[in-house]
């Protein structure tokens, strides 16, 4: 589907550019978009480096495991394939709470770290696991308590009640998140029906068997 | 309620950054070395995101610049106008999942033109705040771990965008309409 959307946007863009006589704009847009991609990625470097450092401290101290086991039941409902006490759960929880508080630049690094942990449980590294899809579903809908950017913009344009949208936004984002979880569940079940279940990924769990990268848990101390 | 949450938001990061190393220190973790060790992965991860992000943003940028997006918006708008929905907010439904900066710019413009407390301003703010940019989230998260086949994740993301969009409009019409 992603291949179709990508190609579709370019081909349809080309056709419209041809009809509208916007070939120069097309070319400019290509390099503009490419530049934007690099700029955004580079903008992520600072937050990624910093948060991955902080999160490593949390992991090494055992804090992440503690949070994971305390709030495990909530997460294991959403992520039944992730073994209990796995570091991925700690990162998933950090990602969810950062989203909730509207801390976008903390949510992304934690989400990425959660993805990396989930990738360690993945038998087929090119294909997403159901747990990854659930994490993405939660992040695309992204439940937020405080839409801080919008409140700031509204304030900027002289709103009498800048936070007046907090309630409606919360209601709408809750509906979107529920829809995402429900759809994710449905697709997960359909994909399980279609192919016979593989041996559960649990076995790959905490052993570092076959991992070429550095082990995720520090052996220090 | 709002003040309490916003207080929590502003305290969250400072508290975490202070509390996590402090807690680790009491557990005899060499905190600074541990930080540096973890931070090493940050650069590589950011670099891994570049190829998918460049690919995706070029396609979106071309799609917008060619006038295709405008055409599609003009096509959809009259269809929903009959339901009492201000047509000005409809382009957001299409813009929101594709580009975060694009839809934020559009929302800001609606707020500027129609006023933040108008029905249009309220609906636009709610739509903008209620979901994240699906295509960006997918590109970054899958790109960071090198997953090529995202399976049904895109469908789920786009479905929840549609539901969120409709819910935002319906809720605002009920509350402010």
TrEMBL record, chain A:
Domain Nucleoside transporter/FeoB GTPase Gate per the UniProt entry, residue ranges: 43-150
Keyword vocabulary terms for this entry = Membrane, Transmembrane, Transmembrane helix
Region described as Disordered: spans on this chain:
194-221
What residue ranges are annotated as transmembrane? Answer: 37-58, 135-157, 163-183
Q: Which InterPro entries does this UniProt record tie to the protein?
A: Gate_dom
Is the Zinc keyword given for this protein?
Answer: no
Q: Which domain of life is it from?
A: Bacteria
The protein depicted here goes by the name Nucleoside recognition protein
Q: Which organism is it from?
A: Paenibacillus monticola
Automatic annotation (TrEMBL), chain B:
Keyword list (alphabetical) reads:
Membrane, Transmembrane, Transmembrane helix
Keyword Lipid metabolism in the entry? The reply is no
Record flagged with keyword Membrane = yes
Check the record and name the InterPro entries matching this protein. Answer: Gate_dom (IPR011642), SpmB (IPR052549)
| Regions that span the bilayer | 7-25, 45-63, 156-176
Residues in Nucleoside transporter/FeoB GTPase Gate domain copies: 48-146
**GO CC list:** plasma membrane
Q: What is this protein called?
A: Spore maturation protein
Q: Which organism is it from?
A: Paenibacillus monticola
Recall the taxonomic lineage recorded for the source organism: Bacteria, Bacillati, Bacillota, Bacilli, Bacillales
